[in-house]
Specification:
The protein is mainly alpha-helical. The chain has a single domain, classed as Growth Hormone, Chain: A, CATH 1.20.1250. Helices cover 78% and strands 0% of the residues. The protein has 18 helices and no strands. The longest helix has 32 residues. Keywords: Cell membrane, Membrane, Transmembrane, Transmembrane helix, Transport. GO terms for molecular function: transmembrane transporter activity. It is a multi-pass membrane protein.
């Protein structure tokens, strides 16, 4: 019987994959550290949940454009060089953020602008790095590589936000941004040691013809298109991250430490589900796996909203007075959402990498990155706007229910997606 523990064969199969994984993990840790710190920074300057949500929303259009164009670059040029250039831009913007903070010159607009630059550069980098992986590993190990990516995400989100909350509370913002600058150096090691990786097959230079070619492929690729739609649905209605700073101040107590704990709980679920993914990666019916995992995600977000609803009837809180029971219950619900989302991500990523030809994989990965990172930004807008006119508990309660219902309806209309077989991948 296969082991329930994570499959480590990708590390043994490819040293290049191993180095890229280590670099991505350390760089992602620093990136999440900065993301949560920027949220806390904006909330301190504005005391507005809507302003926090706009950190994510402001980068949406640039991120979409960068993801699409970055995918075209990855399908036309050496993917190693494209990823390195994107990493340099991300490094420079993070360094500037640290310098401005140490000089006490940071403003709400600088935080927005540099967050936008980071989002755009990360879209290009992530699309390119993801398109590289199928060139480093055989197809039968792609699901295992996706599970290892879940370990990366788990470490990023579990350690980064918790550390951000502690560092901001104890040392301020400057040191937190500076640590990200140092951690980002690991990405250059992981990318620099890769071989040259030009796309295989017919190459179309970036431009309108390349975009049209990718769009025509996507029109024929019903399974890929459906997974995009399902993920956007889940992230738009079931992503409550923009609420965390306000929850730590107004409803649960504990301030920045609670904000970090809530974010880290999602990562804990991601980490544990990858750690025990040995049997998950061997399940061949990826369409069904995606459907069930996203509906479980919706149920967890609904439970999170229910926990917050209970909180409105309890005594007031502060940074030193907390509703510990509610914090624990909220963290458990969010851990479940992280586990469910990670299982869906394993199947979605493997479907993308296994069924899409190499010479178009960059463009499809660019769209995939736009979906994965753009969906939460739409979710931030949904949560921020709805919380502003209602209560903090209402957006996740309604959103979780919408995710469950909408996903069930969409998959019922697409029997081919539900029958997707990883042993015979078809886009």
């Amino acid at each position: 019987m296969p082991s329930a523990l994570i499959d480590l064969r990708p590390f043994r199969a490819s040293g290049a994959f191993t180095r890229l994984w280590i670099g991505s993990t350390l760089t992602g840790l620093g990136g999440q550290l900065t993301l949560v710190t920027v949220m806390l920074h904006v909330f301190e300057l504005t005391s507005s949940t809507f302003a926090v949500s706009m950190v994510a929303v402001a980068g949406l259009v640039p991120m979409i454009l960068a993801g699409l164009y970055g995918g075209m670059l990855a399908d036309a040029f050496d993917r190693r060089k494209v990823a390195l250039i994107a990493a340099v831009i991300t490094f420079a913007s993070t360094l500037l953020l640290a310098v401005l903070t140490w000089a006490h010159l940071e403003t709400i607009w600088w935080l927005y602008v540099l967050s936008v630059v980071n989002a755009a550069a990360n879209s290009v980098s992530l699309a390119t790095r993801t398109a590289i992986i199928p060139r480093l590993l055989p197809r039968q190990l792609l699901a295992s590589a996706s599970a290892l990516n879940g370990i990366t995400i788990g470490v990023m989100l579990m350690v980064g936000p918790a550390l951000a909350g502690i560092l901001v509370a104890m040392t301020g913002y400057g040191w937190t941004y500076t640590i990200d600058v140092v951690l980002m150096l690991a990405m250059f090691l992981g990318l620099w040691t890769l071989p040259a990786l030009r796309p295989e097959g017919t190459v179309i230079r970036p431009g309108l013809a390349s975009l049209i070619d990718g769009w025509q492929f996507l029109r024929r690729a019903g399974n890929i298109r459906m997974q995009y739609i399902l993920d956007i649905t889940a992230m738009t209605f079931g992503q409550p991250m923009a609420l965390y700073p306000a929850l730590g101040t107004l409803l649960l107590g504990g301030g920045a430490v609670t904000t970090g704990a809530l974010t880290a709980s999602v990562a804990a679920g991601t980490f544990l589900s990858s750690l025990f993914s040995g049997r998950i990666v061997r399940y061949r019916w990826h369409g069904r796996g995606i459907e069930r995992a996203i509906q479980a995600y919706g149920a967890c977000i609904l439970a999170f909203g229910a926990v917050l609803l209970v909180g409105i009837w309890l005594p007031p809180v502060s940074e030193t007075t907390v509703n510990l029971g509610l914090i624990v219950a909220a963290c458990i619900a969010l851990a479940g959402s992280g586990a469910s989302d990670n299982i869906s991500s394993i199947y979605r990523s493997t479907m993308m990498q296994a069924s899409v030809p190499d010479n178009i994989r960059g463009r499809l990965q660019g769209i995939f990155v736009v979906v994965v990172t753009g969906g939460p930004r739409l979710g931030a807008l949904y949560v921020g706007a709805l919380a502003a006119i209602s209560s903090l508990w209402f957006p996740p309660l309604l959103g979780g229910l919408l995710v469950i219902v909408i996903v069930a309806m969409l998959v019922r209309l697409s029997p081919r997606f539900r029958a997707y077989d990883a042993e015979n991948p078809e886009p």
